[in-house]
Write a structure and sequence with these properties.
Elements: H1 2-29, H2 36-52, H3 57-67, H4 73-102, H5 106-134, H6 141-163, H7 171-189, H8 191-199, H9 211-218, H10 225-235, H11 237-255, H12 260-272, H13 275-282, H14 290-301, H15 311-327, H16 332-355, H17 359-383, H18 385-393, H19 396-399, H20 407-419, H21 421-437, H22 442-459, H23 473-489, H24 495-510, H25 540-551, H26 556-569, E1 576-578, H27 587-591, H28 619-622, E2 625-630, H29 642-657, E3 658-665, E4 671-677, H30 683-690, H31 694-699, H32 705-714
Parallel strand pairs: 1-2
Antiparallel strand pairs: 2-4, 3-4
Helix pairs in contact: 1-4, 2-3, 3-4, 4-5, 5-11, 5-14, 6-10, 6-11, 6-12, 7-8, 9-10, 11-12, 11-14, 11-23, 12-23, 14-15, 16-17, 16-22, 21-23, 22-23
Amino acid sequence: MIGLYFVLALALVLVGHTFRLLRWEQFIRIYERPPRGQMLRGMAGGYALNFVLPFHLGDVFRAVFTGRRMKSGIGFSLATVIMDRFLDVWFVALGFIGFWAAGFGGEVVHRAARYYLVFSLVLAVGLVLVVLRLADVKFDLFHWAVIIGFWAAALLYFYWAETRRSFIYIWDYVNYISKQYGAEAAFAQTPMTGFHYIFDSLAEDYTNFITLFIEFPFCLTDRTGDSFAICQVFSIVPMLLLLLAGLVVKVGQMLQVKNRFWFFLIGLSWTFTYPWLRMSAVLSQPDWFGLIFAFSILLLTLDFRFEKLDLPRFGLLFLATAAIILSRRWYLYFVVGYYFAYAVLVLVSSARIAKVGRKQEALLQVRNLILFGLMSMVAMVILLWPLVSHILGYDYADHYSYYNGGGMVTETYLQCARMGLMNLVLMGMGLWFCFKRRKMPALPCLAGLEILLSMVLFTRVQTTGSQHMLLFLPGWFLLFLIGAAALAEGMNRRRNLKIGFWLFTIAFATSVRCSPLTTVALPDFLIGRTVLSASPQESAHDFAAIDDLVYDRKDLPQIKAIANWIDTHCTEGEISYMIPHDMLYCPDHFKNCQLPATPINDKLAFGFSVPGTHNFPMQFFEAKYVLTADPFPQTFVGNGEMSHKLNERFLAVRDEYFALEATFDMGNGTTFTIWRRTVAPTRAEVEYYLSAFKEEDAQYPEMFSQIAESWLAARGL
């Protein structure tokens, strides 16, 4: 019997090694014919050495032994071995997760599953390296030194930026922090509950996809809002930097830049320090995670014209496209704009080679493009049907009309303002460089068409906010890099002037205050001396004062005092309602002032502000206490905003239904008052408040009168 088991074990080992060899072949086959005999000997020798040497040094032997006999060299062989091992890690990790989910193995398997959580990030980095390999991007020692240096500088900068302020995460800035807490709580119940938490969100505007990549190292921190922001820098920035550096190298190759040293240094620093990229990290918005996939798409397509059916490239393109849509819904505007512009580029390329007699090649390019497009769309609809059906069935233009502030004219102005004069000058230099030397007109045309199409599509729904700038960055960064090429190629002429221009721009960009109220990228020392406000009624001085307070809360003790008061005076099942709903003061400030603790999360209603987004607040009538402020805060909005209307109605009849309970001086000229309801709500009171929103009710009856009537009917009123 022992002999039978031995023979069976030996057979299974040989079968396993055969499959390993065939799997390894697939990575090599992309670029050259696999030397199967050499690979077999290298693998056997590597396994033998792994039995006697630590740290899997046998794999190094396998890579060197095989690579010396390959056209692509040892470096390529080592990359294939690494990816082969990554697949092993993933298989083992999935096995542990499966055992964990099934409840097998106890604490040992549980610890192993948590251990392999680390490898999810490692694998993500590995996939980034595969993209770089397929894009034929190679880094030398100088590149690696710059990349690592930038990451180290980013960690130090963000730690300094996060710890020098008192910022309260609200609205979109706390959204993903809450989702991270939710994912942790779901997985704590059972693994299947956790997976359901992830998958059930795929049809929502804010999916839980990003939480998978930030849990480590977030689980090792104190789980505050600032910790979440810093963890993004740890987890996201390495991948983002690698791809951004790869994009710089790729554009340099395409433009045939001779001065590679200055081009790489200028190009990477100019793009990486762009304020609207840094703002996502500073404000704890992991929206910039989607740029990993956007840059992957660029690297895989910029110099590829569908000359052949490259299945690994197609697979990565599909995965990157699906991942960017799952990261944030509005990246879909980039996807549509870029792929349309890219298809035009491929068709133009096909027409050009057809003119010189290569019609067969031209037809092959068009055929491959159509096949890829059709297969991708079918697969996308099948795999992401919940998200697709939600997008098709939801009228975003109607529900987000409040955020639509002027269409293409306004958006063009905003894009130019956010670019800044020096970036516009740089892009102008790049366009002149391409025109003068007739170098790669495809790049500026591709970038310009993508930006234009994305803007046209986006402005049909709303005007961009600061976070939405991320979807335009791939196009803008291409133009930045073309400008960097122009600057680097002419570095020998007026060298000091050009270096000074570059350094001044970087210093200017890195000193921009990335606060929620930032509408124009300006450093701290210029804020308050320039009209930044989106509202012309606000003076620069007043706007700067509000911006200072929002970014670095000097009233944090008072906010915590009000939160503690609500926690003390509202028992379980009782709620308070806060009327102000603005960047200066809103319910989220009081709910999230003690993260990760949220003691009043269920004791303070969310609030009411934006038509088409927020329902008529029936919690106002259910609340034991109502909070308001004097003067009523207004940061971005005017008196027509809905919370202002609600407050005006409240002040007019306040004494009939409420009694003053407490007063809090916020120390900045604002006084909060807390009112206790003394009279039970009536139909007349509900209709009195509802009458202030006739226009909104006519447009969204399902969010106003229908909700009110349902509430009244349920209470017999």
